[in-house]
């Protein structure tokens, strides 16, 4: 074989292997589901993106899934990854005792309400970051992970080229002004969650612990309200005035699926449950559950609304 053809063959072979191990695999389009989801997005007053992948069949839907959106609190998934990378390197231990300082205060969440000098294990701070989305605790974890630059380096090295921490990260002020704390795409955020579930983030043991943390969610009144409570989910959501987002991996009876819904530039910046973005999160979750579990006769309780 001529040398040039040999090089070409090696390149094609290598590209094929890289494609198979990519953090964002190719999908086979689910035409029926796409039609239903596009109808749900029709008339939305803002920009919206949706990414869905059935982990069993490889079928899914991509709608503006490679568009950049503000992460809001969903950035706490990458922060957790960066933190566990530090633990894996031996720079931190998961159960080590931390000492809270008033200098860490960002808002009056659980961690921000601690007294100066209070003690808390790192594992509890991480739990609060993912479960109740504690902002002071999350920024503390970001710093312990080595800061936004270290987290972004981990994301890049693992194939997540669009997801980035912007806040308190040198050189990213312009991005912070535009997107806030972080930026990502629906595809990358969903696949990062799948990456963790598959045991590929940091190590199998680290992935397992991170996945457990993401399975304890306090904020369950939006997309999660449309999924039966006895079904295991791993999830994180986020919201700022003109943006709502939710990434969910559903361990459904007939095959797990992962999805992400993100919005930006919403006309509706209200904080009621009726907000157009919150409503979209619920609608998409309901559509997906009915599509992937068509024989399920479960539906949200008629009295569910009274709690919110």
| Average pLDDT score | 93
How many strand elements?
Answer: 11
Which word captures the global form?
globular
Our Rg estimate from Cα atoms comes to 20 Å
Uncertain runs are: 3-21
CATH superfamily of the largest domain: DD-peptidase/beta-lactamase superfamily
Main beta sheet = 6 strands, mixed
Task: Note the beta-strand portion.
Answer: 15-25%
Description:
By secondary structure, this protein is α+β, with helices and mostly antiparallel strands. 39% of the residues lie in helices and 17% in strands. It is built from ten helices and eleven strands. The strands form three sheets. It has a six-stranded mixed sheet with strand order 1-3-2-11-10-9, with helices on both faces. Strands 4-8-7 form a three-stranded antiparallel sheet. The radius of gyration is 20 Å and the shape is globular.
Brief account:
This is Serine hydrolase. This protein is α+β, with helices and mostly antiparallel strands and 308 residues long.
Key phrases:
globular; 39% helix; 2 domains; Beta-lactamase; 10 helices; three-stranded antiparallel sheet; 11 strands; disordered N terminus; six-stranded mixed sheet; alpha+beta; 308 residues; single chain
Write the layout of secondary structure elements.
Blueprint (H helix, E strand, L loop, with lengths): L2 H18 L7 E2 L1 H11 L5 E8 L4 E5 L5 E2 L5 H14 L7 E3 L19 E3 H10 L3 H10 L3 H10 L6 E2 L7 H7 L2 E3 L1 H12 L6 H11 L18 E8 L2 E8 L6 E8 L11 H17 L16
Parallel strand pairs: 1-3
Antiparallel strand pairs: 2-3, 2-11, 4-8, 5-6, 7-8, 9-10, 10-11
Helix pairs in contact: 2-10, 3-5, 3-6, 4-5, 8-9
